[in-house]
Every structure is written in structure tokens, then in C-alpha cells.
Amino acid sequence: MKIEVTLGIDVGGTNTAFGFVDVNGKCVAESSIQTKAQNSAADLFSRLHPEVEKLYQTISDKYLLKGIGVGAPNANYYRGTVENPPNLKWGVVNVVEILKQYYDVPVAITNDANASAIGEMLFGAAKGMKDVIVITLGTGLGSGVVVDGKLVYGSDGFAGEIGHTVYDPNGRQCGCGKKGCLETYASATGIKRTVMELLATSNEDSALRNVNYNDLDSKMIYTSALAGDKLAIEAFEITGKILGLKLADAVAVTSPEAIVLFGGLALAGDMIISPTKKSLEENLFHVFRNKVKVLPSGLPEGNSAVLGSAALIWNEIIKLETITI
Amino acid sequence: MKIEVTLGIDVGGTNTAFGFVDVNGKCVAESSIQTKAQNSAADLFSRLHPEVEKLYQTISDKYLLKGIGVGAPNANYYRGTVENPPNLKWGVVNVVEILKQYYDVPVAITNDANASAIGEMLFGAAKGMKDVIVITLGTGLGSGVVVDGKLVYGSDGFAGEIGHTVYDPNGRQCGCGKKGCLETYASATGIKRTVMELLATSNEDSALRNVNYNDLDSKMIYTSALAGDKLAIEAFEITGKILGLKLADAVAVTSPEAIVLFGGLALAGDMIISPTKKSLEENLFHVFRNKVKVLPSGLPEGNSAVLGSAALIWNEIIKLETITI
């Protein structure tokens, strides 16, 4: 009997990665093509189709495709759409309908952060947990909220925007038009802005005084912090302090067993987890104290996005099978 | 055939109200006894039992008891317990076990705010909605969060503590030990504190300058505001502004269709709803704007707590019957 797999597709601004993943989260084959952000969604998926077929041929003697999960920016789970993604010239497009032209299996779509959350729940750090919040610390701050084993989509399919909860109503300008959103502080971009602020307010010597804003990235700040650069270390501490404060608010809403940190900035490990955990505990309502784990992602760094997208549709299939039984 | 009813019990610091409620939220008989907060839980329920029996006798020719729901402070739904309630000398006690000694029907317990949330969902302003947040503005600020038609209990049964999300980490001392919790601003007590602050910071003449802190209540502030007292009106505006800001954070987590305001301070109607709604919209992430309703409670003022407790167990019974079908 063939082993069942799902196809996970992760649509990024530059590349679209895809791979076949079994129910245990093992990726048995993967590849990628250019997204070509200036072109339409129809163009992407028409170019993707033969590549997926080619890859499937290499495994189809042993594996059987059961469903397709897509992670994409500004995706709406309920409608199957991607709606005006900032980095793709797609407008509003129904991705599920496009894919249904090519494949006769269940298809689901959600945004990258939600896909990561389901990935962590099925295959990663939140395996077996029913209540968890996954935070992706990339260019921005994305989040996926799991309640009672199910991703929270909310009334409109857009729940889980913890990056746009407000840390300081008079604070930093956010790309969304508001001021002081959490993601302007706690993200790869946020920590860069914090470094700039520290360069202005402190007299501390730092290797980062030789780097301009555009060249600076969160990996450099991490490397400097590891080398003992006090200003870089303080930037991580401030980031964790603000992140922990706002995560305490989110815990008060859904009371998760754990918070999983995912994405580029989360690769700094304890450098970011330790101050986040400290601030979280300080700001938690007493009934939640010493209960909420703060964990690094349990997904392999290389193909976590493909695993998340594959997990999205695995989760749907598992739900269906449970109901049938 | 007899009409099915559930028994709703609302345990308060002074009185314990109870009543029989049908599946449409009609309370067919109700009464109350003294709680006697210094006595044990066992004492309360042993005194309650004959009173419940007496009331049931008056309706049992037409009605059949299907289950019992209890709303009580510091109640834990998962464990069936009440745990160290601030106003009752109960310690940790399993209320469901106590009630099971007297009644051979399903029993469930939750805290007052969660019971209200289920009440609003089944019988009140949130009827038919699947995603909603209910805020009770009483002495403190309680909340019940409904996601996909189900109350969120979280990993430990204590989810929904929006009153203890942080508005200002350096702000007002909260009874919980933290500083600047939302309930120190947005609650009947919170608006009193805001009036005191305004009496200090402003030179505005006000009838409230003749009232001492202990005598002042939120109804007086409302009456003054209705009479055009500028300071009282400003107190409502500040309260709504802060409440709206923090509710925007909660919307970003679960994306509800509506927020229902319940409890004493919510009786001020538009005086509190209007500034709350304005501030909510200003602080919402753009995808949520112009979507989230802010509604007054749809439960009758007199027995809303009994209806909420009855709704809790109706909700369990309906779930069971749906699964059986």
C-alpha cells in the first residue's frame, strides 16, 4: 500500500517552495521555482504544475497525494483567496479555485504564520498541545493562535494579528498605518530600530556604530551580542521585554500551554527567549504564572514553511477522518 | 410531554440566585437564598437543595430538569472546582461533586463572566454568533471569549482574563498585585478612580466634587454625565478610550463578530459604548475595521446571571445532542 503524503506550497516574494510531506512530518521530496512577483497568480500556478508533476513522478511508486496546503501572504482560509498581498501583484485572487483546475484533492490555504502554527502543532515544538500561540519573528511579527486543537480564524478569517496589538499608541510608525504596533519593536526590523534608538540614546561603544541602517540585519545584532557587545545585548533585552509584555496580554485571552517563537529573529535562541520569558512572567496575571512555556521552533530551519503548509491540509484530513469514524 | 429546563445557579458574595430556564432562555421560576460567605460551600448547597426542590415542585407537572449550570467566582470548568474565591471562605472545593450528591443530571460550573458570555450567545445580544467577546463591567472587568461557537477555557481553564491585560505597566495598582491592568481603568471602580484623577488634574466645576470616594458609585457618575456634568462626561470618555484600545488588542487575537458589554457600568449605554467604539476603531488593525459590533447586553437585567448559568449547561446538552445525531 502506498504511503499518503500531502503537498505543501509556500509562496514567498522571491521563491515558491513545495514538497511532499507524510503524516509524521517527513518531507520526502521538495523543490522550488521563482515566484516572479510581477506576474499573476495564474501564471505562478501554471508554471508550478508541471514542476509538481515532475517531482511527484519521482515518488509516485511509493507515495499517494492526499491533499494540498498553501501558505501565502494575506491568505484567507474561509474564502480560499489571497487578498492584495504587499509583495505580489496579485490583487484579490482565489488560489483554491486555480489549484482545483489542476488537482482533484482537497486544497486549503492560509497565511504563513497560521501555517507555521499548524506545523508546530502537528510536527514541531507544540506537538500534542491543544492550546498554543506561535509567533513568527521575521521582517514583521506574524502569529497563529491554536485553541482546543484548532487554529483560530475568527469571524472573518483574519484572527491572529498579534503583531498589530499596540505597545505604545504614540510609538513607532508601523507599515499598517498605526503607531506603536508590537511588530515595530519585536521583529527583525523592530530590533534594528531599537539598535538605532540605542545608538542615539546611549554612549556605549559598539561594533554596530560602523553599520548603516540598510546594511544592518538581525543576524549581525545577534553576532555582536554573542561577542559581548553591550548595546547589541541591550537591544535583545528591550525586544524581549516588550514582546513578553504583549504576550502576557495574549495569554490572558486564550491561556495557551506554550508560546513558540519561530522565524529569523527566533534563531537567536536564548538571547531572545530568556528576556521574553522573564518579561512574560513579570506581566502575567497570577493564575497563569509558571505555567506557560516559551519554546523555540521545533521545525527544521530549511523547509519549515513547506512543512507548515503541508500540515495545514494534513490537519483538515485528520479532522475529516475523525468525524467519519 | 414535559418541557425541558435547566437549573441556573449564580453564587454571589451576598445572595445565591437560582431559576429554571427553558431552551429559549425563558426563566419559568426563580428564587434566591443568602450565600452566608463565612460558611462552607457544603453548607450553601445543603441549604439550597430543599429550596430548589420546593421551587421545582411548583413547576414539575409541566417541566423536566435536564441539567444544572453554576456561575461562581474563581470557578474552574475543567476541574468542577471553585478555587479560593476572594469573597467566600471556601478555599478549594469541588462544587460539581457536591451537587452530584443531590441531583442525577449533568452539572457544569464556570466563572460568572464565562457564564454571561454563554448566556449572551444562546439567549442575548450574541445570539447566533460564533465568535464573540463578552465584557462584564462590574466592580472589576471580567470577560468570556467565544471562538467558533465554543467558550475558550485554554490550557488550564482560566482563559478570558482581559481585565488583567496591561494598559500601563507603571499605572494604577491592581488588586491582583500588578500595575495598570485594564480593570483598574475600565470597570465601576476604574471610572471612580478616573473621576478622582480628574478632580485632581482639572479645574472643571462638578457635582462630583461634593461626593467622597467611598460614597461615589458609577451610577452617580452616569447621572451626572446625563445632566451635562463635563467632568463626569470626560470620565466616561477616558474609560471608553482605554477600553477600546485594549479591546482592539483582543480583536487582533480572535477576530470576533461583536463585543458585548455587560454589567453595572454597561447600563450607561451609549455614554460608555460610544467612546469605546470610537477608540476601538481608531486602534484596530485595518483588516478588522468597520466590522466589529459593540453591543449592550441582550439579557434582561434582573436575572441575567441565572440565565447565564442555565445557558452554560444548555450549551453542554446541545453539544451532546448534536454529536449523538
How would you describe this protein?
Chain A has helices spanning 41-57, 95-102, 112-123, 188-201, 218-226, 230-254, 270-283, 304-324; strands at 3-11, 15-22, 27-34, 63-71, 75-76, 81-83, 92-94, 107-110, 132-137, 141-147, 150-151, 258-262, 293-296. By secondary structure, the first copy, chain A, is α/β, with parallel strands linked by helices. Chain A folds into two domains: 3-118 and 301-324, ATPase, nucleotide binding domain (Nucleotidyltransferase, domain 5, 2-Layer Sandwich); 129-296, ATPase, nucleotide binding domain (Nucleotidyltransferase, domain 5), CATH 3.30.420.40. In chain A, the strands form three sheets. A five-stranded mixed sheet of chain A has the order 3-2-1-4-8. Chain A has a five-stranded mixed sheet with strand order 11-10-9-12-13, with helices on both faces. In chain A, strands 5-6-7 form a three-stranded antiparallel sheet. In chain A, strand 12, helix 7 and strand 13 (293-296) form a beta-alpha-beta unit. In chain A, helix 1 (41-57) runs parallel beside helix 2 and helix 4 crosses helix 6 (230-254). The longest helix of chain A is centred in the last third of the chain and has 25 residues, at 230-254. Chain A is globular, with a radius of gyration of 20 Å.
Labels describing this entry:
homodimer, 325 residues, alpha/beta, Nucleotidyltransferase, domain 5, 2 domains, five-stranded mixed beta sheet, globular
What is the overall number of helices of chain A? 8
Rounded Rg of chain A: 20 Å
Strand order of the largest sheet of chain A: 3-2-1-4-8
Oligomer: homodimer
Largest sheet of chain A: 5 strands, mixed
What class do helices, strands and sheet pairing of chain A give?
A: alpha/beta
In CATH, what is the class of the largest domain in chain A? Alpha Beta
For the largest interface, the chains and their residue counts are: A-B, 43 and 43 residues
Terminal Cα separation of chain A, in Å? 21 Å
User: What gross morphology of chain A would you assign?
Assistant: globular
SSE sequence of chain A, one letter per element: EEEHEEEEHEHEEEHHHEHEH
Mean pLDDT across all amino acids of chain A: 95
Helix content of chain A: 25-40%
CATH homologous superfamily (4th level) name of the largest domain in chain A: ATPase, nucleotide binding domain
- Please mark out the parts of chain A with pLDDT under 50 across 5 or more consecutive residues, or reply none: none
Number of spatially distinct domains of chain A? 2
Please provide the count of β strands of chain A. 13
Strand percentage of chain A, roughly?
15-25%
